[in-house]
Structures are given as structure tokens and as C-alpha cells.
Amino acid sequence: MSKEFTVLYFASARDATNVQSEKISLPPQSTSISLENLTILLKRRHEKLAPILENSLYAINMEYVENDDQTILVKEGDEVAVIPPVSGG
Amino acid sequence: MDKSEIQLLMVLNSRLKEENEQLKIRVKELEEKLDKQNSLLISNTHNESNSRKTCNTFDKDTDSPNLEDLTLAEYMRYGRQLILPGFGKTGQLKLKNTSMLIVGAGGLGAPAAIYLAATGVGKLGIIDHDTVEKSNLQRQIIHNESREGISKAQSAKMTIEELNSLCKCVAYEVLLDSSNALEIVKKYDIVIDATDNVATRYLLNDVCVIAGKPLVSGSALRMDGQLTVYNYKRGPCYRCLFPKPPPPESILNCADGGVLGVVTGIIGCLQALQAIKIAIENDESPNNLLIFSATSYPLFRSMKLRSKKKDCGLCGEHPFITELQDYVQFCGSGALDKSPSVKLLGYEDRIEPKTYRNLRNEGTPHVLIDVRETVQYDICSLPSSINIPLKDLPSKIEEVKKSLEAPNTPVYVICRLGNDSQHAVNILKNYLKGEVKDIIGGLYKWSLDVDPDFPIY
Ligand SMILES: [Zn+2]
Question: Where does this protein chiefly localize (chain A) (predicted)?
């Protein structure tokens, strides 16, 4: 069994991926993934998500994390939310 | 334009003028009524003045100075909330002494303004440079059919004054920008961001940090919404979370992306609730970003935010943004470009709707591709057109080729307004041998120039 985490997509991120959430396996033999590598992985999975990730927020288990914070690791069972800004009204 | 159309427009014009005059008279009547009530309130209780705090954003000369206690009319009117534990008379008095500025009298601002006026906020400012259009009424419930064509700020003020004459309402019929924002915002205690564009969001964020006001920010698009309070309780500002604006071409607005009225209603009501909680100083919750998604379960999720970012250029430890900027330049788009018209193609790659109609009537062999989203195609479409949404086009080139009678059969592309169709022509030109043109102005212009029975949406 590979170790998995969940990604939730909101607003335009959900439109770009066509899914509300998905389970993603951690890279083989690893127990976590950095936010930088997560971004690379998500861009590879969903081509249309790439420009949206440039301006989106990450939350891990619904707590905001700065996406350039290198100390943050996504671990097995974590729930990562991709939250792009909504600007309409 | 032919004679009958001109005549029709003239009739319409004179009718609108007449309506405008009537509305102006009504505004005057209501203002007089308000003045009368205010002076009545003053005479009722001015002998009870004691040393309770009065809010410095009230203009002492023109506003009611009766801020220390509730009047008999107020006890009766607000009874249902006065008896609430955690609100009470103290809460009501705080509301009465609070001024709030609502920026945008649209889908978010409409319900926010209605509830804030009804609940007894002392002074409400409403900014909007736009006028009421029929397509607003599906969500902007502070306006109605008789207000079509008049200023949204004035229309909102009219509704508020009919609803609660105790609430002082100021309408600003201006486009908020760097030249006027600080002066207006300074006059209010709490600012409510109910705008529909990124440039105004950055402007309001900066002005609120500079002026030291909490910014209750709401947004909504399609089936989604967000709510956050910026520059509040040591929390982040908008720039802490979103230091750079999204590229203008990636931003959908309500006109292009659509929005369900009740979604803006939900977020607007939450903004009103949040503003009340700030005003009555009854807000224990940590800084958070509330996410609403009408199609997800659960409907609401709350993301906990951190405190402000140390290196934020505006509110951080070493700020370098110390005055307002040019936000249209910063964002690459402004409050006024709702659906900027694209000019990608030269005239040789485009065709007028009327010319295309002739070609259709003559039975010239061709293929018509409609690149709107399928949900839009299903609303209305031209007979014998093929629907391939723009985003799917690159992967469907073979399908297009198969639909051609001969390799050089001409292909015409249509969309709603004539923007996406130009992108599509640029894609198709690389693969097709025959003529590829887009129909200028899209189905909108088709309806105006060729077929008045074709729906405009
Ligand atoms: Zn900041």
C-alpha cells in the first residue's frame, strides 16, 4: 500500500481539474513531500492548473501555510486545499 | 439604424427622462422626511446627554447628535435583537455609533446594505459608479425594475431610506480610485469590500491598511464565494495572502463566468454579520478565510490564517508601499473593463454578421463552429453549427477536419461576443487549408444586425 494524501480543489482550481478532491500517492519510499515538489507534481497532473497555482493559497488540514516555507511537509493522511482568490461580486 | 428604430429610441429616451425626474422628486421627498425625523429625534432626547463615547466619524453638524441613548422608536423597532444575550442595548448603541462604507452596490453590497440598514447601523456610505441594468436584478436585490438606468448608489439609498429612515445613508456616485479613496474611507469605521474586480480589491486593501480600518472582504463567482476580514486583530492584509495580482486574462467576472444570485446573497449576508460583530466588539473567532461552495459538501470550510506576513510590502515590518498606487496598471485591468474586447485578428480574418448571413442564404458550403461552453450553446445556437468549446478545440482538430466536405471548405467561428472566436481562428489557421474567419461581435451582434429574435443573454 502506498502512502496517500488528499488534495481539495476550490473555485477555479476545481474548474481546471474537473474534480473536487483526489487522493495522491506520496513518492515511493518517502513519507512526505515539500510544498515546492507538491506544486511540481500538481502541475504535471493537471496542465490547466499551472497558471492558477501561481496565485493560489495552500492550506494543510485547513490551516494556511506559506507556499515558500521550506520547513512545511505534506505527510500521509494530510488534506491539502488549493484555494485560488475569487474576485467577482 | 432605420427610422422606426430611431423613433423607438427617442420614445424610450423621453420615457427614461420622465422616470428620472420622478425619481429625483422622490429622493427629495425622502430626504425631507429624514430631516424631519432627525430633528424630531433630537428634540426628543437632547436633554439626556452624558459622557458616553461618540464616534468621531460622524459629522456633528449634519448628523443626529442623539448617540448616547436609544429613542422610544428605536426600542420598539430593534426589540427582537435588543433582547439577545451578547447583543443587547450595548450592542445596539454601538451599532448606532458606527459608520460603515459599502464599496459596490451589486450582488454582495445589495444584501449587505439591506441587513445593515435594517439592523440599525448609524451611518452607511455606499459607493458605486454604475447604473442599474436589467441583468443586475437576478442578484442585486436592493434595486428593482423601476430603477433601471439610474445610479446604483442612489437606487440603494432609496431602498435603504424606505426600509429604515433612522439610518443615515450617503450615496457616492463615483468610481473609487487612488485620488478619492483615502478621503472617503477616513470618514468610516468599517469598510465592506463588495466590489467585482481585482484592481479595486488591492486599492481598498491598501487604503484600509494606511487608514487603519478593518476590511470585510467578500467575493463570489459561479457557485463559490469567500469571506475574510483583512487588517483586523493583527491578521494579514490582502497583499499578505496575494502579493501579486492574477494575470488579467485568467480572471473570470460575473458577466462571463456567471453567478447564482443566492450565492452572492449568502456572502453579502455574511459580510453584514461580520461587520456587525466587529462593530459590537463581539468577535472571538481567529482570523480565517471562509470558503463557500454551493456544489460541495460541506458547504462551508474555514481556513485558519496566520498573523500578518513579516515581509509584506504594505503591512509588514519594513513596508515599501506607503502610498496608493495606480491599481489599473498594477493589475493590468481595471474596474471599468468588464469584458475587454479582444483585437487579435486583422480585418482579413474576420467577417461581418450580415455578410455571413448572405453567405448562409446563398447556400455556400462551409462549416460553422460555435466555441462557447456547452451550457451556453444549449441556451441558444444557430442551426447547423457545431459546438466545440474553445478549451477543447486544440484536442479536437481532427473532428473539425472530418466535418469538412473538401480540405479547403471555409470554416467560420462564432462565440458570444466575438473574443473567444478570434483565439479559435488563431488555433485553427495552423491546421486548415481553407479560409478561417471569425464572426465579428459574435451572437450578440448577430442578434442586433441580423436576427432581432435571437436571444441576448
Ligand atoms: Zn500585508
Answer: cytoplasm
ipTM, 2 dp: 0.95
- Domain final position from B331, B365, B399: B331
Mark whether B141 and B175 lie in a shared domain: yes
In the residue annotation, B269 being an active-site residue is answered as: no
Which amino acid is located at B69 in the chain? D
Residues B156 and B274 in one domain: yes
CA of B193 from ligand 1 middle (Å) equals 16
Residue A89 is assigned to a structural domain of this protein: no
Inter-chain touch B291–A55, beta carbons under 8 Å: no
B237 C-alpha vs ligand 1 centroid, how far in Å? 4
Q: How far apart are CA B150 and CA B134, in angstroms?
A: 11
CATH of residue A67's domain is: 3.10.20.30
- Please provide the average confidence, as pLDDT, over all residues in chain B: 90
pTM: 0.83
pLDDT of residue B338: 58
- The structural domain count of chain A equals 1
Q: Are residues B228 and B365 in the same domain?
A: no
Please give the grid coordinates belonging to residue B369: 463552429
Which residues lie below 8 Å from residue B455, measured CB to CB, with a gap of 6+?
Answer: B379, B380, B447
* Number of domains composing chain B: 2
Is B178 annotated as a binding-site member? no
* Residue B35 in domain: no
B30-53 per-position pLDDT tens digit:
787 777 666 655 554 444 333 333
Alpha helices (H) in B258-338, listed in sequence order:
261-279, 327-331
Q: Which domain holds residue B424?
A: 347-450
Cβ separation of A57 and B289 shorter than 8 Å? Answer: yes
Contact A57 B241 (CB under 8 A): yes
**The predicted structure's pLDDT at residue B443:** 96
Give, to the nearest 10 degrees, the angle between helix B109-119 and helix B261-279.
40
- Considering CB atoms only, which of A11, A57, A87 is closest to B201? A87
B349, B425 Cβ separation under 8 angstroms: yes
B415 is catalytic: yes
User: Is position B288 annotated in a ligand binding site?
Assistant: no
Task: Please identify which of the residues B254, B269, B331, B380 carries the catalytic annotation.
Answer: B254
Q: What is the mean pLDDT of residues B302-319?
A: 95
Q: Do both B237 and B382 map to the same domain?
A: no
